[in-house]
Design brief:
The complex is a heterodimer of chains A (about 240) and B (about 210). Chain A is built from one helix and 19 strands. By secondary structure, chain A is an all-beta fold. Chain A has two domains: about 90 residues, no CATH class; about 120 residues, no CATH class. In chain B, helix 7 runs antiparallel to helix 8 and helix 7 crosses helix 10. The chains are: A mainly beta (about 240), B alpha+beta (about 210). The interface between A and B is medium-sized, with 23 and 14 residues.
């Protein structure tokens, strides 16, 4: 990208822009961008809305942002609330606030320490999910590492290594436990190496499967190894 | 759909690949989404694939992945293309287009001797259909017009090109993700080509 001759766009207060190409885009007040925007750095600290597509190198949402088009960036950090109505293509995604995506998510690395909801499929090389997420389609990642704090849901999970761990509860979470169920719910898990805790799944297929405590699994199909905790319920076990 | 299907489990066994590999290839778009057919079985939901197509694709991936990276492979299979530019002599040398058709194409298109992928596709389709004798020159021009007007769409979607004739009048259609098309009686479908296949053919000639 040729950046030298580009200006910056800053909206401090109530304002709107028609988009275009910029070096730096900052929305500090209540800013609206009505069309596509392409920039090196995108930052939203207030209440921002982009009605077009966004292409950026680095992006950061600290306030409340809404994107009506697709969002593409090398790096995206969400510390506030971000809503993407279409697809999200980011190399490096970090969410410690709340992000919801209407379409699909394609990333290399997703680090989640907040809430994420995805309408369609979610793809990444590495998916590290702590806290809560909901994925309407397939969660497809080479390495899936999930630490459960709250309610996690995905329609299907597939990948090479899939690890699900229960967060070591604190005193407060022990008190809240009856109210919030801290579990991963999914229909299908497929992977080469699967290690589960606190998971409800209809079908689990893999080569090496370990079912840990508090799991409820309908069917496990495995090829090499299988082990089961005494506090887990598995209705049917098949060795292929 | 009357194709023979194969379940995911059988496929993994037959091809000797792991879940991780299959999912990785899916992520890299080496295996098209449409091939994942979901069906309910007595064990719950299972995924099936069109047997012939998937085995052929996996075979291709496995033989080519030694020389090419997965991303390069994805470029090869996916319709969205790299910013490759070739000039006319190169295309003739690589057997993508004959000299006669190339001259014809350049008469209709003045944008110079450098070919990007959309132009390569245009000239390749023209070559293919003219050489087979299925279409005439005017239809060739019509086809170029359609391809040029929809160049952006063709890059993203799986498209098919169709030429029909009725009472000596021909028309050219571009079908996007179409399952079936029906015409009134008396319409003759002269030719129907999948642009995806054409792109793969070009790419295999480029490598």
């Amino acid at each position: 990208m040729e950046l030298k001759n580009r200006g910056d766009l800053a909206i401090n207060g109530l304002g709107s822009s028609n988009g275009g190409q910029f070096n730096l885009v900052t929305l500090n007040g209540r800013g609206t961008i009505n069309n596509d925007v392409e920039c090196h750095e995108f930052e939203c600290n207030g209440l921002g809305t982009v009605n077009g597509n966004v292409t950026a190198d680095t992006a950061r949402v600290n306030g409340n942002a809404k994107f009506k088009g697709t969002f593409e960036s090398e790096k995206l950090t969400v510390e506030g609330t971000a809503k993407f109505e279409k697809n999200l293509n980011v190399k490096n995604l970090r969410v410690s606030g709340k992000a919801s995506v209407g379409g699909s998510v394609k990333c290399e690395e997703i680090k989640l320490r907040g809430m994420l909801s995805v309408g369609e499929d979610c793809e990444a090389e590495l998916f590290k999910g702590e806290y809560r997420f909901t994925i309407g389609g397939l969660l497809n990642a080479d390495q899936v590492e999930i630490k459960i704090y709250g309610e996690c849901k995905a329609k299907e999970i597939g990948g090479q290594t899939i690890t699900v761990r229960q967060h070591k509860g604190s005193f407060i979470s022990a008190l809240l436990k009856p109210i919030f169920k801290a579990q991963l719910e999914t229909e299908l898990i497929e992977g080469d190496k699967i290690d589960l805790e606190n998971t409800i799944a209809k079908v689990v297929r893999g080569n090496q499967v370990r079912i840990g405590p508090n799991c409820q699994i309908g069917v496990v199909e495995y090829t090499d190894e299988f082990s089961q905790d005494k506090n887990a319920i598995v209705n049917d076990i098949r060795k292929a | 759909m009357s194709e023979e299907l194969i379940s995911k489990k059988e496929l993994l066994e037959l091809a000797g690949i792991s879940y991780g590999q299959l999912y990785r290839w899916k992520r890299k778009d080496l295996i098209p989404e449409e091939w994942f057919v979901r069906k309910s079985t007595f064990t719950g939901q299972e995924t099936f694939f069109p047997k012939e197509k998937i085995l052929e694709r996996i075979n291709k991936i496995q033989t080519m992945k030694e020389n090419l990276s997965l991303d390069e492979l994805a470029d090869m299979f996916s319709p969205s293309l790299s910013d490759l530019q070739l000039d006319r002599d190169e295309l003739i040398k690589r057997n993508i287009v004959s000299n006669a058709v190339m001259n014809l194409y350049l008469e209709n298109d003045q944008s110079g001797p450098k070919f990007n992928f959309s132009r390569m596709l245009e000239v390749y389709v023209l070559e293919k259909l003219l050489q087979s004798g299925e279409i005439n020159l005017d239809e060739g021009k019509m086809l170029l017009q359609v391809l040029k007007d929809n160049a952006a769409l063709i890059k993203q979607k799986s498209c098919e090109l169709m030429i029909t004739r009725k009472l000596g009048v021909s028309s050219c259609l571009l079908l996007i993700n179409a399952e079936e098309v029906h015409f009134e009686r008396g319409t003759k479908v002269v030719v129907q080509v999948s642009l995806m296949t054409c792109m793969e053919e070009i790419k295999s000639k480029l490598v």
